[in-house]
Amino acid sequence: MSEGQRYQLGTIGALSLSVVSSVSIVICNKALISTLGFTFATTLTSWHLLVTFCSLHVALWMKWFEHKPFDPRAVMGFGILNGTSIGLLNLSLGFNSVGFYQMTKLAIIPCTVLLQTLFFRKIFSRNVQLSLAFLLVGVGIATVTDLQLNALGSILSLLAVMTTCVAQIMTNTIQKKFKVSSTQLLYQSSPYQAMTLFIAGPFLDGILTNKNVFAFNYTPQVLAFIVLSCLISVSVNFSTFLVIGKTSPVTYQVLGHLKTCLVLTFGYLLLQDPFSWQNILGIMIAIIGMISYSYHCTIENQQKAMAEAAAHLLQAKEPELDPLLNVENGGSILTDGVGRGPGWNSNKDLQA
């Protein structure tokens, strides 16, 4: 199997793992929050990250991956930023209507595209832009119902979008810059994310719910769902870093909207949630946008790979066409029937 085929299989596996684990944890958390009344989302997320770090530490001890330290300031800043973005998204949901929160999530894709275009000079083709527009319109039709605006909620949503975009772009950039895997980055950053949310979580949850997380009645059923949610979160966090590292922040957001459509569908089929023709129409338009985005990204990546392969082939042939390069690369040429090696230097011989 060629390297390109292995990479494609790895990417498909990462996308599949992200979808399955995310949909599973949404269903689990929905039962935990809606049915059992455990509404402390930020604190729960801090426990997710703590369990993720402990699981990766065990994996490191078992030598399943190699620890690769790099710039500690970059790790700390990245971890705190990620934790802050999660807290701001939860606050945005608490201080806004559900419809406005969905608009906030939709705004992450165009914001990410804008930031990557301005600061990283990344070019998004017209086909990709149209596909993303189809996707956003479809998800908007399927999920956005009411748009109640307020000043505080709008500011929190803006901050949530900006920190989320920057954190996801950093996830991709750090992995490539420092040549670390998704597992290595998650292992080093998860303690800072967990610490940020563990400190801020009870306070934020108290503001949003008017309840104390430490005074909650933790029945065996609640504890069982919390443990299940934490275990699934290990796969969610790992697949998030894996997908962003292998693809791009925009592709991860596209995948996130696919999860939203799947959650809506499974909620209707399994939990008998209310469903309308507006939801069906929106999901169909969103799926068209996703398929179009995947198709055009695949075509463009293949063209880019072919161009890079042609460039490498041309570079490999250049030394054969230019005999002077052979001298620079350690070869020798004949002058008046005398072979001179690469280390021959007339000045040095005269000095000797």
Distance from first to last alpha carbon: 56 Å
Strand content range? under 5%
**Run of helices and strands:** HHHHHHHHHHHHEEH
Unreliable residue runs: 324-352
Query: Roughly what percent helix?
Result: over 70%
Descriptive notes:
The protein is mostly helical and 352 residues long. Helix content is 80%, strand content 2%. It is built from 13 helices and two strands. It has helices at residues 3-35, 41-61, 72-95, 98-106, 108-120, 126-143, 151-177, 182-209, 220-246, 249-271, 277-321, 323-328, 346-351; strands at 333-335, 338-340. Strands 1-2 form a two-stranded antiparallel ribbon. Strand 1 and strand 2 form a beta hairpin. Helix 1 crosses helix 10 (249-271), helix 2 (41-61) crosses helix 9 (220-246) and helix 7 packs across helix 9. The radius of gyration is 26 Å and the shape is globular. The model is unreliable at 324-352 (pLDDT under 50).
Name the descriptors:
2% strand, globular, 352 residues, disordered C terminus, two-stranded antiparallel ribbon, mainly alpha, 80% helix, 13 helices, 2 strands
Layout: helices, strands, pairs:
Blueprint: H1 3-35, H2 41-61, H3 72-95, H4 98-106, H5 108-120, H6 126-143, H7 151-177, H8 182-209, H9 220-246, H10 249-271, H11 277-321, H12 323-328, E1 333-335, E2 338-340, H13 346-351
Antiparallel strand pairs: 1-2
Give a quick rundown of the structure.
With 352 residues, the protein is mainly alpha-helical. The protein is built from 13 helices and 2 strands, in the order ααααααααααααββα. Helix 10 runs antiparallel to helix 11 (277-321).
